[in-house]
Amino acid sequence: MGAYILRRLLLIIPTLFGIMLINFALTQFVPGGPVEQVLARLEGQGDAFKSVAGGAGDAGAEQAGAQDSGGYIGARGLPPEFIDQLEAEFGFARIVCDAGYTGPVTTAAPECRKETIGMIERFWIMMGNYLRFDFGTSYFRSISVVDLVLEKMPVSISLGLWSTLIAYLISIPLGIRKAVRDGTAFDTWTSGAIIVGYAIPGFLFAVMLMVLFAGGSYFQWFPLRGLVSENWNELPWWQKITDYLWHMVLPITASTISSFATMTLLTKNSFLDEIRKQYVMTARAKGLSEGRVLYGHVFRNAMLIVIAGFPAVFVSVFFGGSMIIETIFSLDGLGRLGFEAAVARDYPVLFGTLFFFSLLGLVVGILSDMMYVFVDPRIDFEGRG
User: I want to staple 259 with a disulfide (CB 3.0 to 4.6 A). Which of 72, 85, 139, 167 is the partner?
Assistant: First the structure.
């Protein structure tokens, strides 16, 4: 098992490289990069130079409207040297000055010139920085990507871990009971409820919960937004825990619905397949109790397919599903951060979160394989080849 885990760990490197390469290449064909985003904002707010571009904005603001660059959509009226400085700050170009020049590094000086950095070179620079765990700084938030991810992580961890844990704790026992009582009234009405829950989109269910229980039109039992109350730091430790759980009830319920339905039916079908096999009838013929047959023999085999789906369930709840839930309940987590970074073309944040979630998914996949062996020691990944 040790050699297999080592091979899987080493496989993470080329897999991550391929994921980053494909996504980096795709972004090059998306119109409206970060430079154009900033220029569009500046055309709409002439006093935003200082807040967006730092020191380069002071010189650019004085000359705004004096020249027509024509290089970018929305760049009319902005001086070319300001645009060159912006490209250099975002890593799309570099400003090179002659030897011995000691003045300001700007293309407005005759001794300096702009050199465009190609797509391939930018990709290798980014990957080299990632190898040093340098994920850069957000284009628009003036904060490092690592600090930004750490700031948003508690929300996503809360949603992802609690939703996955609750989904498994409810789905597995319910799926087993549905398999044992297959065809009964219990199986029929629970299947109907599960199908209805699965058919309702998570965001629509979240809105329904807000209307019903968060002061919409009926009850105001739960808070409308946020992870904790504003006075959370002033509360004693036990009230902090209560306040946190109180805020998480509705978001977790909304994010658990779809994964709960899928996992329940998957567990039921898996157990039904195992219950009908010959070894189960043999175990019953030997006089073993029903509990011993189910949890001593059937459980290990039936749970393999459920465990196999854990990485996909965890990552989808942790990132994909949480984006909409975070937006609806005003939770500032990683899902919402990644979406906003994609819209704003904030490439350091976009690729930083992509790298993080890709690495997380690959590591969870290895843990899933380890759980295979824990549930059924007969599985030997070493001898599979």
Answer: 167
